[in-house]
């Protein structure tokens, strides 16, 4: 049974939560700026120490800092957050943190700094914290190249994973598509476009042949999307393009579909004499399939009811998170338990202020139940 005083206590801390959120938002942490990320992890380390009574460990991987406060208990609950955002340095100069009409706005407020604040206050409300591990990575928005191993290592020693990623319109994420990222390179041969174009091998023409084939690899019936996105070609207006390339975004709901598309992309063959294809990239995040979240979602619905919250909704989405990695390992994982708001990665993203204490209470109740080995 969720403690009826839990939500009331957290609601009384709303001003404190918003002050911490302002500090985090105004300390910019773009994924590609290691200096600013170090500033952010220093700030966050101090906040963790103040709120949870213990300084987190800084884990350096290839010059990038991540934070970890590891629980000492057997098979702890893992709470996975990320500090990095998609917003470039200087964004707060034109768009600072603000609160008005029940909405907090600012770059990264929704994805996912408000969820991170909620996680800190949820853990601080526990009677004991030795049964929970907090992991905050700094490269989730760019595919977790250094954070993935940390997330997976901690998940393997954990009984469950809770991910306070944002929840559009409040829906928890119980499934996510897997993500694959590719770049197709075409090598042709340059020639003067006016004098002797026949001596060239037009890489752009070959790429144009390939793009419809690539797009046709999607399967709407199964929710598989294969989307050519950005493309470049050539070196000058009057030269037959010797090179061309295109980026390809793949989303699939199952491992089988992800692997099918991978195999078919790898099997592409040129249709222009003399052209050569080279495919780079591959599977980045495996699918987060619904079985991984079912039990935890049932618990969350129960605790939401006991806390007097509105009935929870759930959603399957195309965007990925570090929860994809933990779910693929077979560790029970519930995602999207963070901020309630909208417009992630877009101008005007916002987090509703009233649900911050509610989601913190829900997260706290889940951790408390899971760490006590209750049936």
From TrEMBL:
Peptidase M20 dimerisation domain span: 174-268
Protein's UniProt keywords contain Transport: no
Cited InterPro entries: Bact_exopeptidase_dim_dom, Pept_M20_glutamate_carboxypep, Peptidase_M20, Peptidase_M20_dimer, Peptidase_M20A
Protein name, as recorded: M20 family metallopeptidase
Origin superkingdom: Bacteria
Key word Nucleotidyltransferase present: no
Record SUPFAM superfamilies: Bacterial exopeptidase dimerisation domain, Zn-dependent exopeptidases
Keyword terms, alphabetized: Hydrolase, Metal-binding
Organism: Kribbella alba
Signal peptide limits: none
Pfam families: M20_dimer, Peptidase_M20
């Amino acid at each position: 049974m969720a403690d009826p005083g839990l939500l009331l206590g957290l609601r009384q801390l709303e001003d404190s939560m918003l002050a911490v959120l302002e500090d985090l938002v105004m300390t910019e942490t773009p994924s590609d700026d290691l200096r600013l990320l170090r500033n952010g992890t220093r700030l966050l380390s101090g906040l963790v120490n103040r709120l949870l009574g213990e300084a987190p460990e800084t884990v350096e991987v290839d010059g990038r800092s991540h934070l970890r406060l590891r629980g000492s208990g057997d098979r702890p609950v893992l709470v996975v957050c990320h500090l990095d955002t998609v917003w470039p340095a200087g964004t707060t100069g034109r768009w600072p943190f603000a609160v008005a009409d029940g909405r907090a706005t600012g770059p990264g407020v929704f994805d996912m700094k408000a969820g991170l604040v909620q996680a800190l206050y949820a853990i601080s409300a526990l009677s004991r914290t030795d049964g929970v591990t907090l992991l905050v990575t700094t490269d989730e928005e760019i595919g977790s190249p250094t954070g993935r191993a940390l997330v997976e290592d901690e998940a393997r020693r954990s009984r469950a994973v809770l991910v306070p990623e944002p929840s559009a319109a409040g829906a928890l994420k119980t499934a996510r598509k897997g993500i694959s990222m590719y770049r197709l390179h075409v090598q042709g041969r340059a020639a003067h476009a006016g004098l002797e174009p026949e001596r060239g091998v037009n890489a752009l023409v070959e790429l144009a042949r390939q793009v419809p084939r690539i797009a046709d690899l999607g399967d709407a019936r199964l929710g598989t999307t294969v989307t050519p996105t950005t493309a470049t070609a050539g070196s000058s207006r009057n030269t037959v393009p010797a090179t061309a390339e295109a980026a390809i975004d793949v989303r699939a709901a199952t491992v089988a579909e992800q692997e099918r598309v991978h195999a078919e992309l790898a099997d592409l063959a040129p249709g222009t004499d003399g052209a050569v294809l080279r495919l780079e990239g591959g599977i980045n995040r495996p699918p987060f399939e619904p079985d991984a979240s079912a039990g935890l979602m049932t618990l969350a619905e129960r605790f939401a009811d006991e806390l007097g919250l509105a009935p929870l909704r759930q959603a399957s989405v195309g965007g990925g998170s570090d929860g994809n990695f933990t779910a693929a390992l077979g560790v029970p994982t519930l995602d999207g338990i963070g901020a309630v708001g909208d417009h992630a990665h877009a101008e005007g993203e916002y987090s509703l202020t009233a649900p911050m204490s509610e989601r913190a209470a829900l997260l706290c109740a889940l951790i408390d139940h899971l760490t006590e080995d209750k049936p």
